[in-house]
Write a structure and sequence with these properties.
By secondary structure, this protein is an alpha+beta fold. It contains three helices and three strands, in the order αβαββα. α1 packs antiparallel against α3.
Length: 131
């Protein structure tokens, strides 16, 4: 194997290892965020049940109330977030951050697969030349 090819292969192997470690870190961050904020924001209008209340005569009930809806062990769980839109802002920030992390993770995985494929091809080529 030529010195140039060997150094290029060595660089690719190092890059693949670094990338694999970065993928693990970003995946861990995604998993932690999802565990904390995973789910979807739901807006609910609730009827109080009192027959004399205006909500009994109108199509909409009291609200809007914001909930985080998520699945835990196969069951739907509703977590009350608040009545004001401001109560939901950090969940919206989560969705933006999660989207960016997932895009970054997909790009890193694609690059990792490319590197792995090239490394395997070069390794196979070297093996056949030495046999």
């Amino acid at each position: 194997m030529s010195a140039g090819l060997y150094s290029q292969l060595s660089r690719m192997i190092k890059e693949e290892k670094v990338l694999a470690e970065q993928i693990k870190q970003v995946q861990k961050e995604v998993d932690e965020l999802f565990g904390q904020y995973g789910g979807s924001i739901q807006v609910r209008f609730i009827r109080c049940g009192s027959p004399n209340c205006y909500c009994a005569r109108r199509t909409k009930g009291h609200g809007p109330y914001y909930y985080l809806e998520r699945r835990v062990s196969g069951k739907v769980q509703m977590i009350y977030l608040g009545k004001n839109k401001m109560d939901v802002n950090h969940y919206n920030n989560y969705h933006c951050k999660m989207s960016n992390l997932k895009k970054r993770l997909r790009a890193m995985k694609r690059r990792h697969q490319q590197l792995h494929g090239v490394i395997m091809s070069i390794t196979q080529l070297v093996k056949t030349n030495f046999e």
